[in-house]
Amino acid sequence: MSIKSIISKRIEKKLGGYKIQLNKIDSVLPEKLSNEKSVGIIGGGLAGVSAAIFLAERGFAVKIFEKEKYLGGKVGSWPVSFEDGFSTNVEHGFHAFFRQYYNLRNLLKKIDAFKYLIPIDDYLILTKDYGNFGFKDISTVPILNILSMAKTGIYSYKDAMLNPGFRKMTSLLSYNREKTFSIFDKVSFKDFANEVKLPPEMQLMFTTFSRAFFAEPQYISMAELIKSFHSYFLSNDLGLLYDVLNDDFEDTLWNPAKEYLSKYKSSILLDSKITSFRKDGNQFIINNEQFDYAIIASDVKGTKNIIQNSDYFKNEHHEFYNQIINLKQSQRYSVLRVWIDKDIRQGVPFFIFTDALEILDSVTIYHRMEKTSEDWVKKNGGGIFELHSYALPDDFPEAEVRNQFLKEFEEYFPEIKGYKIKYEYLQVKDDFTAFHTNLYKNRPTVKANVNNLFLAGDWVKLESPAMLMEAATTSALYCANKIIEQEGLQQETIFSVPLKGILS
Ligand SMILES: Cc1cc2nc3c(=O)[nH]c(=O)nc-3n(C[C@H](O)[C@H](O)[C@H](O)COP(=O)(O)OP(=O)(O)OC[C@H]3O[C@@H](n4cnc5c(N)ncnc54)[C@H](O)[C@@H]3O)c2cc1C
Fold first, then answer.
1. Does 68 map to a domain?
2. Measured in angstroms, how far is the CA atom of residue 468 from the centroid of ligand 1?
């Protein structure tokens, strides 16, 4: 055994393994309900649909109310058509399915959607001033990965040795939910970086990370960033690389989910925005229908609106009402999809981070990633690109977003100079969860302070350090388990990366 593999084994042992089962399953308990119980679920994003699946399998009659005409929320896909008759589906775009998204990947296997995942071959950051950084060759073992990052040029051992502030960086290795949030939730990444005098290249890497959580460095909570670094990078040996769905999300995710749900007592009501709901005795009344249990799985913005309009919560459950109406959504984000008559250079991965001259955070080369786009380009030439800004600066005028995207796109990829746009589709939205400073204390857990009401979504406080899509599915598992447990059934297994960092 090499020294490296001995060290790897030790690190894995110290972390208690890279994949942790969080709950014990009592196999003596029944798996399925023997009586009729119904669950009303508000919101048909990943959290709502996951909860519906976990409960429908156990015999609950589930009903999803979704405000849009399609399922999926932020991972949804919907049709658009253009003046010349061309029609296609669009999305909020590129989504990375990391390999330590244990619960989400199990769900994909369950609904037979796992087969649509394909791997990306590098994690690349393109910068104007510091060159380019690729992370595919760094070690995948926690700690060794940080050490081997030096070879990408993102920091040097000399920097680390000579900078006394660098010692504070060990906080990244010491994730411990309560302690980390009590110390670092009030600190923004920007303030932390200034205090530890982070070298500019390293600031840049953290900034791309921070923006990928839909917040600029002056807003993001350092505790959330430590949690995410722990979850993605310092608690497992799966590396920073990830997989993506190889075609439109409706085909690769939501049709399989709908087909799976159709085998059980389930219904999905699209185009059904819930504006308020109430509880009458033991029953929740949603859209004039009665349910034994309710799950709110709408996004922060939707949830705030629903609770604000619900006199029942305002009058009967003050604490819960205040907790919800004080939730915060993040800055605006934007996605521009363009169909153009030129392609960019070969030899780059299909998803590329940039250092955002002003707004452009990433470029996805759609026709090298998904089948429908590949077919379009084979027929029409050129390329299909998606430009993302995960956190538009607050004062950036919406009217200038499109032109600024295109200006920055051309700066990073000068080979497209003189290109012509065939079609374009712009979205500017403000419904993303805020992972900003000082929000942890007020963040609700899956159990609302109202009997038989539960909350699911990437904005809900969890015991395990899951983020984004994995948080959405994991929150649904926690919700489902609370209901399943209350009905005396066997729980669903929940997995996680280790709950604590190696130095905690
Ligand atoms: C541009 C972009 C890129 C992303 N990239 C990644 C990535 O690479 N990797 C990753 O892990 N995550 C990524 N995410 C985050 C990921 O999409 C979300 O974390 C996840 O999809 C959240 O799921 P959810 O079910 O909690 O919320 P949502 O998807 O927001 O679902 C909430 C649902 O509730 C519905 N709703 C709201 N109000 C009401 C109402 N009043 N009545 C009925 N329904 C209502 C909404 O329409 C929506 O369908 C990205 C998100 C965006 C926007």
1. yes
2. 9
Domain count, the chain: 2
| Residue count of the chain | 504
pLDDT at 48 over 80: yes
- Probe residue for ligand 1, chosen from 74, 228, 468 as the CB with the greatest number of ligand atoms within 8 Å: 74
pLDDT of residue 475: 98
Same domain membership, residue 316 and residue 440: yes
**Is 158 contained in some domain?**
yes
The sign of the CA dihedral 500, 206, 387, 366 is negative
* CATH number of the domain enclosing 280: 3.50.50.60
Which of 63, 64, 75, 98 to mutate for ligand 1's pocket (most ligand atoms within 8 Å of CB)? 75
* 254 found inside a domain: yes
Quick one: CA dihedral 174, 176, 179, 185, positive or negative?
positive
| pLDDT tens per residue across span 141-176 | 888 888 888 777 777 777 777 777 777 888 889 999
Asked if residue 258 and residue 207 are part of one domain, the reply reads: no
Q: Are residues 139 and 176 in the same domain?
A: yes
Q: Considering only CA atoms, which residue is closest to atom 20 of ligand 1?
A: 469
Tell me the CA–centroid distance for residue 32 and ligand 1, in Å. 29
Pick the atom of ligand 1 nearest to 469's CA.
11
Residue 173 domain-assigned (yes or no): yes
Ligand 1 pocket residues where CB is under 6 Å? 42-48, 65-68, 73-75, 92-93, 95-96, 273-274, 297-299, 302, 306, 333, 335, 388, 432, 457-458, 468-469, 472
276 Cβ neighbours under 8 A, 6+ residues apart: 306, 309, 310, 311, 312
Query: What is the extent of the structural domain holding 441?
Result: 34-73+249-328+435-494
Output the pLDDT for position 366. 97
In tens, the pLDDT along 70-120 reads 999 999 999 999 999 999 999 998 999 999 999 999 999 999 999 999 999
Q: Indicate whether 214 and 154 sit together in one domain.
A: yes
Regarding whether 225 and 132 lie in a shared domain, the answer is yes
Q: Is the pTM of this model over 0.70?
A: yes
By the 8 A CB rule, do 26 and 454 touch? no
Choose the final residue of a domain: 234, 260, 278: 234
Sheet holding 266-269, edge to edge: 266-269, 61-65, 38-42, 293-296, 453-455
Q: What is the pLDDT of residue 137?
A: 82
Helical segments of 16-141, H only? 46-56, 102-110
pLDDT (mean) for 177-197: 95
